[in-house]
Design brief:
Layout lengths: L1 E4 L6 H7 L4 E16 L4 E18 L2 H10 L6 E8 L2 E8 L10 H13 L4 H7 L3
Parallel strand pairs: 1-5
Antiparallel strand pairs: 1-3, 2-3, 4-5
């Protein structure tokens, strides 16, 4: 299965600990979505927004990895699963159920995401823009 990561799961070391069977494939830009941070946890979320885009990464994951991610992402309570196509294959991503107002993330959480951006060779300007709320 293909999985689209856009927050702390971009961090390769953390992702490998969480999902031992995962394999990083490539960076990927999801069109017509935007990155934001929300909930009482102040964590990353994506939401539909025509003309926007989210930088992230595609991972190949196993069924066991998906189960681990479901637990980590508090699915289906905090996050729901959304799907899109990439080269004819379904790609799964998580998006929050409740779209609460923007909340700035903690320094610790943000540093994990920043390392993930480096790991995946992403443009940090996308992250900087999302942090403006």
């Amino acid at each position: 299965m293909l999985y689209f990561a856009y927050g702390s799961n971009l961090h390769h070391e953390q992702m490998k600990k969480r999902c031992s069977g995962c394999k990083y494939l490539k960076k990927y830009i999801l069109q017509d979505y935007r990155l934001t941070f929300r909930s009482h946890l102040c964590v990353a979320d994506i939401e539909y927004k025509k003309g926007s885009s989210v930088q992230g990464a595609l991972f190949e994951i196993t069924a066991k990895d998906e189960s681990c991610l479901d637990k980590y992402e508090d699915y289906p309570t905090l996050y729901k699963k959304i799907f899109f196509k990439y080269e004819g294959r379904d790609v799964m991503a998580y998006s929050m159920e409740k779209k609460t107002p923007f909340k700035y993330p903690s320094t610790r959480y943000l540093n994990i995401i920043k390392q993930g951006y480096k790991d995946c060779n992403l443009d940090s300007n996308f992250l900087i823009e999302a942090l403006k709320g």
